[in-house]
Amino acid sequence: MRVGAEFAVTCSNGTAALHMAALALGLKAGDRVVVPSLTFLATANGPHHAGAEIVFADVNPDTGLMGPDELSEALDRADSGDGGPVRAAFPVHLNGQCGDLDAIEQLCADREIAVVYDAAHALGSHYRAGKANERRAIGDGRNGAMSTFSFHPVKTIAMGEGGAVTTNDSALADQLRKSRNHGMSRDTDQFENAIFAFDPNGAPNPWYYEMKEPGFNYRVSDINCALGLSQLKKLDRFVTRRRDLAAKYDELLQPLAPIVLPVSRNAACDSAWHLYVVMLDFAAAGTDRASVMRDLKDRGIGTMVHYLPVHQQPYYRSRYGALELPGAQGYYQRALSLPLYPAMKDSDVNRVVEALSDVLG
Questions:
Q1: Of the four listed, 8, 47, 214, 242, which is most buried by Cβ atoms within 10 Å?
Q2: Distance of alpha carbon 20 from alpha carbon 16, whole angstroms
């Protein structure tokens, strides 16, 4: 396994990975899960599809990451309201960066809360853990119960479409495999219907399987996996190039400060940089984000915003009411994702920064 975990269970996409992880934890109606609001919809939808209610946490306005302070505030808010116990937290490695994993896990361990990391952005990223500053691959199974990954075409490696969950817990891995494949099991030690399961001599019938609880068809095709294995061989090259491009952006954007600033860095993380995000002071530039994006598009440069805070989505807003999360709002109001992919040339970065400077005047 590339990240060093004992088990990696592949599936059809990153959303399925999040849902499978929630099911493997046994999350059900009445349970609650803490999710940072600054993420893609799937991070909240995965555990919610398992029946859990979502407690949205704020994030650092400069990194977009949920840290221990934001997690603690969300837990205190959950304790003071109505509802079932908080059973899990789903921190997000936004843009490829991770937060303070040691502090988050200690906080959750003290309250017997499981941790599942949404690492869809972070394949190839590393975390420097503990006082020894040990460099660990994100998803190696030593941080959290599970980590989920996405292999969508825009991610660090692509399978066309696909996902995976990594863990060092064999029981969780078994549950993940079952939920991926309709809840089916061919484990003879767990068969209950002996009359169907075994022949007259007590040998298991070769066609037999059982389902103790329903699962889903979250399998990924062999064709997708073949592409993924080919891409995995290129991971180090892809990550190195992404880091080089991010460093090039950092250098070229310096003259645009403080109007334009790269997203703040977490010194404990060696990011693989799935996204390159800048924080823009649109008011100081005398413009707005939509105009900047349109003007850049006219110059052949695509940009995007990652993400609209999920607690502001109509479904969750109607379910949980209005919620003030100033860190998430502050990040969202300034964020703009610039082009970043391994095939970019240094001259492409030059062109993006020159165009951005021109658009901002």
A1: 47
A2: 6
Residue in this structure with the two tokens 């991971």, named with its chain if needed: 235
Query: Looking at domain 235-360, what is its CATH homologous superfamily?
Result: Aspartate Aminotransferase, domain 1 (3.90.1150.10)
pTM for this prediction = 0.96
- Per residue in 313-358, pLDDT tens? 999 999 999 999 999 999 999 999 999 999 999 999 999 999 999 9
Class of domain 7-182+216-231: alpha beta
Domain positions in the chain: 7-182+216-231, 235-360
24: which residues sit within 8 A by CB, 6+ positions away? 146, 165, 172, 175, 176, 179
pLDDT single digits (tens) 179-232: 999 999 999 999 999 999 999 999 999 999 999 999 999 999 999 999 999 999
Active site residue 131: no
Q: Which of 155, 212, 297, 345 is catalytic?
A: 155
Tell me how far apart the alpha carbons of residues 14 and 4 are, in angstroms, rounded to a whole number. 19
- Asked whether the beta carbons of 212 and 183 are under 8 A apart, the reply is yes
Q: Are 19 and 50 in contact (CB under 8 A)?
A: yes
Summarised one tens digit per residue, pLDDT across range 34-88 is 999 999 999 999 999 999 999 999 999 999 999 999 999 999 999 988 888 999 9
Q: For residues 344 and 141, what is the distance between their CA atoms, to the nearest angstrom?
A: 32
Q: Length of the chain, please?
A: 361
